[in-house]
Amino acid sequence: MVFTPSLRLLAVSLVALLDPVSAIWPAPQSFTKGNSSLYLHQNLKITYNGEPVRLSTSSSSFSFPHPPNNVCGPVGPGYEGLFTKTPAQQQLAYTADYPASSLSSKEIVTAGVSRALGSIFSKNFVPWMLQPRGKLSQFEPDVYKGQKWIKSLEIVQTTKDANTTIKPALAGEVSEEYNLTLSAEGDAKLTADSYIGVLHGLETFTQLFFQHSTGTSWYTPYAPVEIKDKPKFPHRGILLDVARTFMPVKNILRTIDGMAASKLNRLHVHVTDSQSWPLQIISMPEVAEKGAYHPTQTYSPADIENIQKYGALRGVQVYFEIDMPGHIGSVSLSHPDIIVAYNEWPYQWYCAEPPCGAFKLNDTKVDDFLGKLWDDLLPRVTPYSAYFHTGGDELNRNDSMLDEGIKSNDTEVLRPLLQKFVDKQHERIRKQGLTPLTWEEIPLEWNVDVGKDVVVQTWLGPDSVKNLTSKGHKVIDSNYNFWYLDCGRGQWLNFDNAAYAAFSPFLDWCNPYKGWRHVYSHDPVANLTEEEAKLVLGGEVAVWAESIDPITLDTIIWPRASVAGEVLWSGRIDPATGQNRTQLDAAPRLSELRERLVARGVQSSSVYMTWCTQDPTGKSCEYPLV
Amino acid sequence: MVFTPSLRLLAVSLVALLDPVSAIWPAPQSFTKGNSSLYLHQNLKITYNGEPVRLSTSSSSFSFPHPPNNVCGPVGPGYEGLFTKTPAQQQLAYTADYPASSLSSKEIVTAGVSRALGSIFSKNFVPWMLQPRGKLSQFEPDVYKGQKWIKSLEIVQTTKDANTTIKPALAGEVSEEYNLTLSAEGDAKLTADSYIGVLHGLETFTQLFFQHSTGTSWYTPYAPVEIKDKPKFPHRGILLDVARTFMPVKNILRTIDGMAASKLNRLHVHVTDSQSWPLQIISMPEVAEKGAYHPTQTYSPADIENIQKYGALRGVQVYFEIDMPGHIGSVSLSHPDIIVAYNEWPYQWYCAEPPCGAFKLNDTKVDDFLGKLWDDLLPRVTPYSAYFHTGGDELNRNDSMLDEGIKSNDTEVLRPLLQKFVDKQHERIRKQGLTPLTWEEIPLEWNVDVGKDVVVQTWLGPDSVKNLTSKGHKVIDSNYNFWYLDCGRGQWLNFDNAAYAAFSPFLDWCNPYKGWRHVYSHDPVANLTEEEAKLVLGGEVAVWAESIDPITLDTIIWPRASVAGEVLWSGRIDPATGQNRTQLDAAPRLSELRERLVARGVQSSSVYMTWCTQDPTGKSCEYPLV
Questions:
Q1: Nearest 5°: phi and psi at A17?
Q2: Fewer C-beta within 10 Å: chain A N or C terminus?
Q3: Which of the residues A289, A394, A445, A546 is marked catalytic?
């Protein structure tokens, strides 16, 4: 063993001086910054396509934010510009005041500007934990001399929106690109093709600013700034299971807050499953009355619209999955005649987890039920969704053994029935103007033909992605070995003492836990040809809910969803180096994003301990190869 | 494969009717209950040793609880009887009003009664999630007819407390036993030897009651009740690391709330480490000034006393660890001359994780520093602690290679120096009336002799426990394979791309995550002789803080600390069966405890999804052996 005195501390300090904080998450495609400080003033002049943005309904001037006195929790509702309510209340107010179709881009952008200024002035943080211990003053500008101010923010949207502004788009249909510049003289300009690009640019703008330790100033140390940015993948999402464990509306809205901050743009709500059916269906109230865990654990039509509209205003398209023909047992509680194998035992013979339950595959009553369901539900979601997900994962052949009309588990018998079932439902979904999504088992395990318009969601890994894209299918990737965020926290099943020896230490099926570094290392297009890669629309992290609930939700999702978000927005490869992005580059920026999420009320887990975050190079906590 | 129709649903329902909810966590040593319902009334007559317990400072009658209107979060501060403030504020008020030595048992018990009634009336829950879907009405009594009321709660403490009521006790010195009876006629009686026994009994009392779905009634469905209870192990604790990540006082107090609810009685605060020194030392302010992450991340002497007193009032003894001679690098920031190898690199040569840093082992300046430290700190903690932990884990021999006074990593050279160091510090700690604790490496790895009064904390497993107890040492067990609660959530170190292949998927050293079922399966006295087992005082779950912080703290600790708590209070073996306690028995009771923790403001993770909790037998989510 050799004992060499190390120059490491000195080296760390030098690097720290060169690049104190790298700022933006996800990394922009192109980003240059300087080292001049500029302050943001409450009288900032903001224009949208040449017209002044008026931030208060009662006054045309932007008034200084005063957080309410009775703030709850670590960070209160804070200043929202147009709104003085919590995000949930704000959304409800918006819903009441403005039907979706009447919202203009100007109104959406105005709300976005208001949120951005609220994030900067009222939901910000003093970054002492991102700077070397006791050295914050070397990062912060001197607030007492020579303050230079940002004078204006000019927002230009280069294409006009459609008549119905909130038009749910398919992947790639709407440009999300934006350019953001901030001159050393204090002129900021944000240009984008669409209002969604403007919203992304505003999020980036907020990430330039910190609260000063003196408390009443907000500054960026990075002027001049020049950012050109656009996403690598058009579909960047979270799958949220609200059927195994119900998630209240406010938790879903807070999830959307975190998504907007991370430039994630798709919230896939897995809204029903065999365990519960929380979705109120107006024409069939019995389904949720019997199928929900409790009357308080349901989503009313107004809840659904509020969630979708809240997302749409933040650039997040919310779409729903009703998983079928498996994973639908809860319908048995109201319509037992159309379900087989509900809660059959031992469950392993009939499904992946209790309770089992699947639609009968050859029964017109199933078709009648679904016709009624689609007619009721689909027109309500189409104003905000371009997609509808019909599930299709983990259908167990044995279910049909118990189906009096089939009594077979022979794939040759079942496949044509499943083909007919899928064709019928997808056609109905298309008729409502929606594009179907399906899990990979439908085309890959069952060899069911689905149209090329259908987006196939994979979870079983890169072979599935390759297989599907080589056949010309559009794919979104949710590789369970990397992007299943609920994994690795232990079994949720009970084991009798007789099973002890075989199952100790009671790991879950997708153990281990996917730490953020592992999440970050996944590239959905690795080992694909260029043609195949073009068909990968993006991916979704999955948040299944056997073992999580509203209390743990935020800590499970964040910051890991943002980590996948950077892979999907910026790409796994850093264009500057041509190499995979490194943990060393990511950790300090992610630590900063995490503080911003927390300041905005999203209860994100930490990236690593303060000892590590206080080294902006990340090197103090790098594993040294010896 | 055989397809047999199953009688399981019927069987489940029958069992559910027989034993709808088992209630108490941890399981009492003896517990019989009936099926008569009794309501609790605000005019309940409560006596302590024959005298009425007066619950309001302004009035002698117990007034109906009105939760404040501007409640924050899912559950507000609620009713606290004597107090109208949050638990933290309440403790501060108590500290200001009552010096510890003047607190009588009556005052402590009165506060305990007040908290118990607050838990029942204001921090309770409607147990629909613990009953079959839609069947809550079969569990709840009919609130509109024939209400029977609990008339009185008679509390009897059979031994008189010492003059100084809060006298910190060694393991086993104070009886924690209690008996609780509730007659079908509504007479409740709680008997205990000590006020700590009374506090435990009051916690059990709260667990008998639910809120009625009609909202304004609170009932127990279990009368008549007879409970005889006492702990198996006298030391039932949590080790909380507040040095790697600072935990604010309020989070520590909330942790104590959860401990009291679970009958855990020792909070071991690992208050310093190489990463930071948050502990203010009056005579050496520079240590925390330089050693803390930030001026806001320190504990003042008042903070320390508040934390200890808050615990003492709830039956939780708070004691501190200053880890040495390793794990002390942060002292280098104020006293560089007494530390070697601070932040040396590559860290693997000098310590277990960055930054390294150890006391010089043969330097009188270290002794001077520690003399000053002990004189300052120890008199401040002795009113509430019987113990002080001097650490001693993971000392790396190579540190002394860099020590100019030693320049050796030879154990034969280092062992006598370490012996002298440990002897000196332990003797100083004994002189202040405290009993030293040490990590197992001191006696086992270094063969340093420690007195038989010293309690040795093990973390490396059953061989260490056997080894130490066979030599006559008292032991507390923190087996890292079972009871390290922060494990299994991924690496916190950054890995360069060059290290990618070797370290993907970036698991931490003590992977996997210890799910509650695994935590529950650990018996600290397994495979010991009777004599050896007697020396095991109990155990502690460990909450190290490289990867957690105030946001994740509760979800990491709870409910798993309560799970270890049942092993330590009730024993791994169920005396009724002579077998290990089962997950099937535990899961429904733990699910209930979890709801109580959440209702009291402790953000516990869930036990499993609602589908599972809604079967009070736990069988719907049992893994069937096929």
A1: -65, -35
A2: N
A3: A394
CA distance A439 to chain B (A): 23
For chain A, what is the largest distance between any 2 Cα atoms, rounded to a whole number of angstroms? 84
**Chain B residues within 8 A of A546 when measuring between CB atoms:** 608-609
Residue A75: its pLDDT value, please?
Answer: 25
Contacts of A580 in chain B (CB under 8 A): 497, 500
Range in A17-26, A479-488, B110-119, B530-539 with the lowest mean pLDDT: A17-26
Q: In degrees to the nearest 10, what's the CA dihedral of B251, B257, B262, B268?
A: 50
Q: With CB atoms and an 8 Å threshold, state whether B618 touches A582.
A: no
Please check whether the two domains, A17-229 and A235-570, share a CATH topology: no
Query: Which residues, other chains included, contact A78 with Cβ-Cβ below 8 Å and sequence gap of 6+?
Result: A65, A67, A71, A118, A122, A123
CA distance A406 to A412: 12
DSSP β-ladder status, B339-340 and A210-211: unpaired
Residue B40 CA to residue B247 CA, distance in Å, equals 37
Decide: B51 and B106 in contact? Cβ < 8 Å: yes
- Count CA atoms closer than 13 A to A79's CA, side-chain side: 21
pLDDT at residue B234 greater than cutoff 60:
yes
CA dist., res. A451 & res. B211, Å (int) = 54
Whether the predicted interface score ipTM is above 0.90: yes
Where are the domains positioned within chain B?
Answer: 22-229, 235-619
DSSP bridge partners of B388: B436
- CA angle, residues B609, B610, B615, in degrees to nearest 5: 110
Whether A546 is a known active-site residue: answer no
Which chain B residues are within 8 Å of A3, Cβ to Cβ? 349, 398, 401-402
* pLDDT tens per residue, range B582-609: 999 999 999 999 999 999 999 999 999 9
CA–CA–CA angle A262, A268, A269 (5° rounding): 120
How far does CA B474 lie from the centroid of its chain? 20
Q: Which CATH number fits domain A17-229: 3.30.300.30, 3.40.50.10310, 1.25.40.10, 3.30.379.10?
A: 3.30.379.10
**Fold topology of B235-619:** TIM Barrel (3.20.20)
pLDDT higher than threshold 80 for residue B578: yes
More confident residue, A396 or A55: A396
Percent of chain B predicted with pLDDT > 90: 83
Query: How many A-B residue pairs are in contact by the CB < 8 A criterion?
Result: 285
Whole-number Å distance between alpha carbons of B606 and B231 = 26
A547 closest CB neighbour out of B355, B608, B619: B608
Nearest residue to B123 via CA among B591, B598, B600: B600
What's the CA gap between B402 and B106, in Å, rounded?
Answer: 57
Using DSSP bridges, classify how beta strands A266-272 and A474-477 pair: parallel, antiparallel or unpaired.
unpaired
For residue B96, pLDDT beyond 90: no
Which fold, B22-229? Chitobiase; domain 2 (3.30.379)
Nearest CA of chain B to the CA of A371: how many Å?
28
- In the block, tokens 């009355």 appear at A289
Contact criterion met (CB < 8 Å) for B622 and A491: no
In CATH, the number for domain A235-570 is: 3.20.20.80
* A265: closest CA of chain B, how far (Å): 26
Residue A25 has pLDDT above 90, yes or no: yes
